[in-house]
Amino acid sequence: MDDKIILNLDYGDVNRRSLLALDKATGTTVWKTLTQEVTPFINYGYPGYSTPVRYHDQVILHRCGGIAAYRLSDGSPVWWFQIMTNGIGTPIINNDIIYITAWMELSEAERRGAFFSYDTFEKVLADMDKNGNGLMELDEIPEDMMVFSRPGVDDIEGTQFSVRKFFRNDKDGSVNEEEWIQKFNYLNAVVDDFGMMAIPAEKKGELSSDDILWMQMEKNPEVPSPVAFGDCILMVSDGGWVTCMDAETGIVHLQERIGAPGAYIASPVSADGKIYLASYSGKITVLKEGKQPAVISMNPLDGKILATPAISGNNLYVRTSKHLYAFKN
To answer: Which residues contact 133 (CB under 8 A, 6 or more apart)?
Structure first.
């Protein structure tokens, strides 16, 4: 099976998205699988960012709408699980368990804005109809009233979506009861609670929630993958929140804000008993491995960090928007 290169091809047309296997030596196509055809998920129009990972004779792919495994030999499906994830984080595999940071804008309670408190138009008018005309003018909606936001992120633009923006295409500049309730029902229908998932690797067919070992619902990262060490799984999310969990049970050993503040795009890496967290703002936080990871140091670098640091031998390589750093020992 080592004679193949596997590519995840993402197109604007969800029905053309595919896994492609190429011969390493010649570049010829060995097989091509239309992922939406063989493992149909409800897709929300997001492109795929996750990198496929290998588990023995399978390829694991975190997609918009779910996660699935395909046979390396021919690309046919092994198992699949539908969930309303955006399909961003790359899975990791440790001791025959697959860990996926499933995420979408409304999958966690603290990201949902005040909009979801207004399930009736009577509530809307009582709190916001300043001129008493029975309609919601756009300028009557508070500017800071959100549909969703990303708590802890203040160094990247476009990390929140306001209610005003949601109704900005209204032609007459006001919102009536039918329009409000229609928008509310549309968004409320996709609200769901989920997060980091642990799935046993040896599964077959369509999976249900009963097949999930455990799920962590709070402080989940949008982009970074988790990292495994010992019998622990650790993840870092926006705001510098670090969550360390038991790999088998999901029991949380620690959930604290111990990384640098701001956004996190790069995934944590571990080596020599240490964990390295790279924030978007350019700070490297070094933690000591353990159920209660402790900060060893925090070091600012020049530039933003989006790429995951790489480790080779005794060297740690960190690419920022301005430099490529190499640290020894």
So the answer is: none
Could you tell me the residue ranges of all domains in the chain? 1-104+199-214, 109-188, 218-329
Taking only the tens place, the pLDDT of each residue in 95-121 is 999 999 999 999 999 999 999 999 999
* Cβ(242)–Cβ(293) below 8 Å: yes
Task: Check residue 3 and give its pLDDT.
Answer: 86
Q: In this predicted model, what pLDDT tens digit does every residue of 156-190 receive, in sequence order?
A: 888 999 999 999 876 778 999 999 999 999 999 99
State the residue for tokens 């353990």: 290
- Please give the Cα distance from 68 to 224 (Å, whole number): 19
Question: Is there a shared CATH topology between the 1-104+199-214 domain and the 218-329 domain?
Answer: yes
User: Distance (Å, rounded) from C-alpha 84 to C-alpha 67?
Assistant: 10
Burial class of residue 167 in the structure, from the number of CB atoms within 10 Å of its CB (0-12 exposed, 13-18 middle, 19+ buried): middle
- Tokens in use for 39? 């493992």
Class of the CATH domain delimited by 1-104+199-214:
mainly beta
- Domain at 218-329, CATH class: mainly beta
> In this structure, what token pair is assigned to residue 125?
């008018």
